[in-house]
Design a protein that fits this description.
Low-confidence stretches: none
Number of helices: 12
Strand content: 25-35%
Amino acid sequence: MNYDVIIVGAGPGGIFSAYELVKLNPALKIAVFEAGNSLDKRKCPIDGVKIKSCIGCESCAIMNGFGGAGAFSDGKYNITNQFGGTLFEYIGKNEAIDLMKYVDEINLSHGGEGTKLYSTANSEIKRMCLQNGLHLLDAQVRHLGTDINYVVLENLYNELKDKVEFFFRTPVEKVEKLDESSGYRVYTKDGSYSCTTCIISVGRSGSKWMETVCKDLNIPTKSNRVDIGVRVELPAEIFASLTDELYESKIVYRTAKFEDLVRTFCMNPHGAVVNENTNGIVTVNGHSYEDPEKHTENTNFALLVSKHFSKPFKDSNGYGESIARLSNMLGGGVIVQRFGDLVRGRRSNEERIREGYVTPTLAATPGDLSLVIPKRILDGIIEMIYALDKICPGTANDDTLLYGVEVKFYNMEVEIDENLETCHKGLYVIGDGSGVTHSLSHASASGVYVARHIAKDS
């Protein structure tokens, strides 16, 4: 079967590529191939009662399917160039911000209306952070919530389904370059399909597959970083001074001992801690909802340390995977530990977790994170918790819960030009699969950008 454009991956980059292409040139014949399910069939079997931990589904409903890994996230769209990727280095700072604002407008018009846009502008919190050795990054944050984010994705799919051909549960096994005038052919278990233009948007979960594609097509790459850390859970009141004003606060701290950078990530006020499965490895993440009836009494956020290797070891993701696998081996999945137990050098047990003042929102195995996370990284996380305690007293309470490990895998950075096009004309790599973007807003913006470039030339 022949198409004008084939999009590999139905995450934010792929969705917004398809949306913009349909808008700008409705005559284009477009197909989207997705390894996971359609949105309505994405159901994680973990219910906390009968099934309490990951059972290794063939396709992880949390990570794969329409909407990508962000479908069941808390729907935070950060409009900023200070974090979330380096898209601005390719397309310019103003263009990147304009595209993120355009994505925000689309989300609002597809069910996100009425959600709040937070901002760090003129924040007193920024001054307080600086006074305590912390640095608050600038951003506007649109919080959709997991529930409204689902509605937006549902509406986008309903708008696209009759204009774009979707192939769900159809992972692409190989991408082949045809001669210069013929374009590309993608191979699946059900057959092969050709196109003039191919957009690859496979997200972080497609990192290993992307490595294979780049190797087969001789596309230059360079290693990227991996983020390793824990997810912190504490009473929502402790962080209310930050979350009520900013919702998502990206705070960076430079450790005194090693001068490593530790940062907060993915803050979820009144949210819940969840499992996620990446390439068979169970790690931890967090969600939150816009609907007050779905709120919990806790707030959770990640504390992450970035590791970027070069010579002689270049496999940053492999390093992160080995740590996550160790956690899975010791805890059968995610490990949870009270902060007080960690600093006293003892493992947490079910009794101490149960008697604590923080009720866990995830059924994890009580254990000892010091047996899993390397000392340098763990020392930095402990330092950061004490630093945050100065601006949010209570962060370093004994009953604060730490879940581990949280690992953010980044694709190796694919060599692309200012059009996000590889060395092969008509082959684009966008979103987190490119190693260039690391967020919903940046990935979505990259999809719009490439679609406009393709539509202009079609």
